[in-house]
């Protein structure tokens, strides 16, 4: 290990290096002292601050109930913060009114643990959905859906129903749907929660490829084995507080 690096095994056992702001390219996601309270007494997030740059791939981890999903919901405007400011893709979310929410969401690809595919439509039609909503022409839809299917390795499955696919393939379709409109930001909530370790690793490597081409990727996962193996920046939540923010060593 580089003698300049500080060992810190207390949270996830990485060798750590400092994470100075100068290394972060133009910020794509900024949290400034963000708190979220559900009901009068339950604070799910407390004064959380961080910045994620364009093209970064970052994990948010922590125990069940730590606030990971809440953090992602705030980015996707599913929930609003009680205090603090959030900016996504250079927009202050506090200024986004209800009718502006679809426009913000078009810039964010969302992936869920249960992938939320429509079982009465083909794989192609599921992936096409965000493009249809955005008013993309039919010709472009065909090109883009096939490009997305190609990226996730499922070109041969476009006519199938999602129900006929394996769990790993279904999650790949969910990812293709999230990237088909080429959003600058992808957020994923426990995307490997239902998959075995081998499939989980494949899915995470897929996300890493999107990060490598400039997309900002934020993934909530409590699976420390996978998080460690990917060797990316990690935000650690504990009872709603951001208790660590580090990159593992090279
Ligand atoms: P995680 O994703 O890390 O498991 P969550 O963000 O789902 O954590 O939850 C954080 C805390 O907020 C938990 O205590 C949870 O019970 C609570 N919580 C989450 N959503 C709601 C809600 N809609 N209403 C009330 N409490 C909630």
Describe the structure.
It contains 7 helices and 12 strands. It is of the alpha/beta class. It has 2 domains: 6-107 and 183-248, P-loop containing nucleotide triphosphate hydrolases (Rossmann fold), CATH 3.40.50; 121-182, no CATH class. Strand 1 (6-7) and strand 2 form a beta hairpin. Helix 3 (123-133) packs across helix 4, helix 3 (123-133) runs parallel beside helix 5 and helix 4 crosses helix 5. The termini are close together. Mean pLDDT is 88; it is low at 1-18 and 20-24. The protein binds adenosine-5'-diphosphate.
Present the secondary structure layout.
Layout: E1 6-7, E2 15-17, E3 27-38, E4 42-53, E5 57-61, H1 68-75, E6 83-88, E7 91-92, H2 101-106, E8 108-112, H3 123-133, H4 138-151, H5 167-179, E9 185-189, H6 197-212, E10 216-220, H7 224-230, E11 233-238, E12 241-248
Parallel strand pairs: 5-10, 5-11, 8-9, 9-10
Antiparallel strand pairs: 1-2, 2-12, 3-4, 3-6, 6-7, 11-12
Helix pairs in contact: 3-4, 3-5, 4-5
The structure holds adenosine-5'-diphosphate (ADP).
Using brief descriptors, characterize the structure shown.
disordered N terminus; eight-stranded mixed β-sheet; Rossmann fold; 7 helices; four-stranded antiparallel β-sheet; 2 domains; single chain; 250 residues; 12 strands; binds adenosine-5'-diphosphate
């Amino acid at each position: 290990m580089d003698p300049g690096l500080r060992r810190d095994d207390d949270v996830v056992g990485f060798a750590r290096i400092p994470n100075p702001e100068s290394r972060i390219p133009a910020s794509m996601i900024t949290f400034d002292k963000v708190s979220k309270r559900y009901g009068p007494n339950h604070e799910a997030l407390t004064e959380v601050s961080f910045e994620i740059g364009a093209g970064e791939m970052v994990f948010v981890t922590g125990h069940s109930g730590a606030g990971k999903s809440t953090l992602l919901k705030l980015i996707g405007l599913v929930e609003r913060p009680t205090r603090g400011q959030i900016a996504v893709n250079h927009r202050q979310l506090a200024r986004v009114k209800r009718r502006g929410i679809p426009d913000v969401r078009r810039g964010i690809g969302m992936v869920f643990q249960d992938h939320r595919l429509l079982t009465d439509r083909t794989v192609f039609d599921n992936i096409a959905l965000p493009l249809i909503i955005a008013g993309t022409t039919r010709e472009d839809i065909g090109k883009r859906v096939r490009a997305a299917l190609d990226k996730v390795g499922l070109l041969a499955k476009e006519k199938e129903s999602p129900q006929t696919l394996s769990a790993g393939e279904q999650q790949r379709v969910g990812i293709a749907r999230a990237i088909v409109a080429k959003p600058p930001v992808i957020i994923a909530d426990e995307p490997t929660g239902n998959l075995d370790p081998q499939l989980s690793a494949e899915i995470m490597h897929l996300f890493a490829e999107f990060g490598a081409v400039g997309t900002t990727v934020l993934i909530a996962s409590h699976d420390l084995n996978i998080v460690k193996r990917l060797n990316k920046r990690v935000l650690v939540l504990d009872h709603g507080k951001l208790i660590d923010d580090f990159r593992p060593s090279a």
